[in-house]
Amino acid sequence: MKANKRYALTLGMLALGMPGAHAGELTGNAEAGKTKVAMCIGCHGIPGYRTAYPEVYHAPKLGGQNVTYVEKSLKAYASGDRRFQTMHAIAASLSEQDIADVAAYYAAQTAGSKSSTLK
Ligand code: HEC
């Protein structure tokens, strides 16, 4: 039933005129991901940041996370398998290519990365 849910989600995104999810293997591009994390930095880029709404939540650090883990988490938020209101809205607005790029970007970060302030 999971597949049906994804299919429905894709149709829903197309209906809303958002970039649709593409089938098949995608290769993440960390360079492209760099420009796509602009909307993530607000929560994930501030050390120890806690969201104020709907409750106080700690936004986890993404830099250096495993690429598959980031991808799976975003897809789980998008499909609703993992529940978190804000992340659901954000993940559902990303195309599969966006997810692959963003995951590649975060996975490429290390403590010594020049761009580590974006974690
Ligand atoms: C409004 C604040 C906010 C924004 C913006 C935001 N996030 Fe999140 N994100 C959170 C919070 C809070 C959590 C923890 C939710 C939970 O407990 O499941 C989270 C969880 C995650 C996780 C799971 C991490 C883990 O350790 O399990 C990933 C991956 C993630 N976000 C990626 C992103 C990406 C990529 C973007 C930008 C496209 C983004 N987030 C934008 C607040 C935000």
From TrEMBL:
PROSITE patterns: CYTC (PS51007). One of its GO terms (molecular function) is heme binding. PANTHER family: CBB3-TYPE CYTOCHROME C OXIDASE SUBUNIT FIXP (PTHR33751), CYTOCHROME C4 (PTHR33751:SF9). Residues 28-110 form the Cytochrome c domain. Transmembrane segments: none annotated. Residues 1-23 form the signal peptide. This is Cytochrome C. SUPFAM superfamilies: Cytochrome c (SSF46626). Gene3D superfamilies: Cytochrome c-like domain. Keywords: Electron transport, Heme, Iron, Metal-binding, Signal, Transport. It comes from Pandoraea terrae.
